[in-house]
Write a structure and sequence with these properties.
Number of domains: 2
Oligomer: single chain
Number of helices: 7
Strand content: 15-25%
Structural class: alpha+beta
Length: 370
């Protein structure tokens, strides 16, 4: 997959996830804010009419005439804004005693004038007024009236049949909620944008760092492969010239007397003499030394590997580890083994893995390159 396609899919995935989470969070917070605003309006209305009720009761207890008390209240609320929030007062028969618009004073609420919806019931608003008890809910009007719904709280004035009422215009409140929603949405979109960009840049930075590490690792592997290829070529060259080198070594003065040309072994009652160059490798198993020929024949010896190594031509045989002495011609392939180690594949195949430890890798390379 191309990097551009990968980055594009990653960016789209981040946008999809952040948008989904953001919209769910927006709906949750907006719903909570809406409920809090409605409750705040109701509580504000209840508190205001409760305080006015206490004030009116105190005036009546001070001996002020009821008509004068009503008149004082009317003068204090007259011409106040009725489009958003306002206070009015009814008697329990539903007659308007006080209203910001003097034209409504004296009018009576009809039985089917409006409905009052609270948390537990739906009733006519006049029925709520006539009960003379405090209540809070939504007052809705018939569609043909042209009036918008209101958040209404009613509260009785002690010792009278008066009912104070606070009104909040629901349409105006919905406009405020719409503005609130747009603010939430704008903030959410900005947050989604910055999270998406930040997440994308972070993922891209992590990917590039991983990519650089991978490139370094691949370069190291390539270098190791090149080194192994060089070693294998050296083995091949060594094997091609082995016959000529062997003949030269036999007549060379550098050949010492203790280098063996044959190995004597036994098979039952038969004495067998093996040419040293017919042996592929020697190996040790459970304190017994075995040899394997290029023809895959196997024999046991009484000599130790240390003794054998002193008697063998070091140009042809190499002590790979404590268990194996290997003839150059038996080495078929050299592989990476573990960390900084080598593994020899032989022909014929050895019974166990022939590993050259990292401490002997340099010596082995030098032996190949002689």
């Amino acid at each position: 997959m191309q990097k551009t396609t990968l980055y594009s899919l990653t960016f789209l995935a981040i946008i999809l996830v952040t948008t989904s989470v953001g919209l769910v969070a927006l709906h949750h917070h907006y719903s909570n804010a809406k409920e809090m605003l409605l409750e705040s309006k109701m509580e504000s209305g209840r508190r205001e009419i409760r305080e006015i009720s206490i004030l009116l009761t105190q005036q009546l207890q001070a001996g002020i005439a009821p008509l004068e008390v009503v008149d004082h209240l009317q003068q204090s609320i007259v011409n106040t804004d009725t489009q958003s929030e306002f206070i009015c007062m009814y008697n329990r028969e539903g007659v308007e005693l006080c209203h910001p618009d003097p034209a409504f004073v004296g009018t009576k609420i009809e039985a089917f004038d409006s409905k009052f919806v609270d948390s537990s019931d739906i009733d006519d608003f006049i029925a709520v007024i006539s009960r003379g008890q405090s209540a809070s809910g939504i007052r809705s009007f018939p569609m043909q009236s042209g009036k918008s719904s209101q958040i209404v709280s009613v509260y009785p004035v002690e010792g009278t049949d008066w009912m104070l009422a606070s009104h909040s215009n629901v349409l105006l409140l919905q406009t405020q909620l719409g503005n609130l929603y747009r603010n939430f949405l704008a903030g959410t979109l900005v947050l989604i944008f910055f999270i998406s960009i930040g997440g994308f840049l972070l993922i891209r930075w992590i990917y590039r760092k991983y990519e650089r590490n991978t490139e370094i690792h691949i370069a190291g592997l390539n270098e190791e492969i090149n080194n192994l290829s060089l070693l294998n070529r050296q083995v091949e060259n060594k094997q091609l010239s082995l016959a000529e080198q062997q003949r030269s070594r036999e007549s060379n003065e550098a050949s010492t007397e203790n280098q063996r040309k044959r190995i004597i072994t036994y098979q039952k009652d038969e004495i067998i003499a093996l040419d040293i160059n017919d042996i592929a490798f020697f190996y040790l198993v459970d304190n017994t030394v075995y040899l394997t020929t290029f023809r895959k024949q196997q024999y046991t010896l009484n000599n130790s590997l240390d003794e054998l190594m002193k008697q063998l031509n070091s140009d042809d045989f190499y002590r790979a580890n404590r268990q194996y002495i290997v003839h150059l011609d038996a080495i078929e392939t050299i592989l990476i083994y573990g960390r900084n180690q080598l593994q020899l594949k032989t022909r014929p195949q050895s019974p166990e893995t022939i590993a050259i430890s990292k401490n002997k890798v340099a010596e082995f390379k030098k032996w190949l390159d002689r």
